[in-house]
Amino acid sequence: MFDPSGQRVATTANDRKAVIWSADGLCRLVELGGEGALPDQPVGHTGTVRVVAWSHDEQRVATGADDNTVRIWDAASGQCLLEIAAQDFAPTSVAFSPDDTLLATTGHDGSANVWRTADGERVLSLAGFDAVVWSCAFSADGSSVTAVAANGRVRTAPTDPLAEAKHRKPTGFTADERQQHELDGAGDWVAATSLVAGIAGRVVTVAEVIRAIEGDPTLTPGVRAAALELASERRDSPQELSRMAWWVMRSAAASPATGSRR
């Protein structure tokens, strides 16, 4: 794969390495398989390297291999900057977001995930695939990511789970439902809403949101009860849950009074 400027080419092979070459293929510039930046990190991939992608600033290269990991490398030194245990099976594609802060990966296990390139934390999962997911790509502005599976299923999701709700009134709720989630004031409901919205942006199912709430020993009884009620009311998807959570936060911010939830 050529870098964005067309001056270098990154190649993969079954020798467990990726190599950066000059565009004419005559000069082997960097071998991606040197010593990593993390003390306990093994040297390079331990399986055939299958996929490669350049960052848009041309400073990093991402690779995915049969060892079921994705790695991000320094394109100049060949040093491994980050390792992500991305899938239960080998990755099938990798792609940087336009600002290079996120990396999307897909896999033979039907997974499609988005990770932060700074620390490798997963920020989004696209659920619902029941076949190999072959490819992924970000929109030009980085606001959404799309993944395509072998069975033809295509899924697109915002990289920020609350992005849609931040720009327009949530849909899919009746007037009674909207009124039900309005607040008379701040307190446990505001804290619970922030908690639920944050968890919903990181996990795949609402059941996972509920388990995360139940397993958090730091929550007060009031916040836990409010969060569980919010999460239990929308079990179809974290995206719906996030829209509902945003509505509660907006209602709370608009109301200066204190009191209980109607």
Q: Which strand order spans the largest sheet, edge to edge or round the barrel?
A: 4-5-6-7
The first-level CATH class of the largest domain is given as Mainly Beta
The sequence of SSEs as H and E is EEEEEEEEEEEEEEHHHHHH
How would you sum up the major sheet? 4 strands, antiparallel
Fourth-tier CATH superfamily name of the largest domain: YVTN repeat-like/Quinoprotein amine dehydrogenase
Task: Kindly estimate the percentage of residues that lie in beta strands according to DSSP.
Answer: 25-35%
- Determine the structural class based on helices, strands and strand pairing: alpha+beta
| Average pLDDT number | 76
Q: How many extended strands?
A: 14
What is the level-2 CATH architecture name of the largest domain?
A: 7 Propeller
Instruction: Tell me the number of structural domains.
Output: 2
Describe the structure.
This protein is α+β, with helices and mostly antiparallel strands and 262 residues long. It folds into 2 domains: 8-158, Methylamine Dehydrogenase, Chain H, CATH 2.130.10; 163-254, no CATH class. Helices cover 24% and strands 29% of the residues. It has helices at 163-167, 175-180, 188-200, 206-214, 221-232, 238-254, and strands at 8-12, 18-22, 28-32, 49-54, 60-65, 70-74, 80-84, 91-96, 102-107, 112-116, 122-125, 133-138, 144-149, 154-158. Strands 4-5-6-7 form a 4-stranded antiparallel beta sheet, with no helix packed on it. Strands 8-9-10-11 form a 4-stranded antiparallel beta sheet, with no helix packed on it. A 3-stranded antiparallel beta sheet has the order 1-2-3, with no helix packed on it. The radius of gyration is 22 Å and the shape is elongated. Residues 164-173, 181-186 and 254-262 have low confidence and may be disordered.
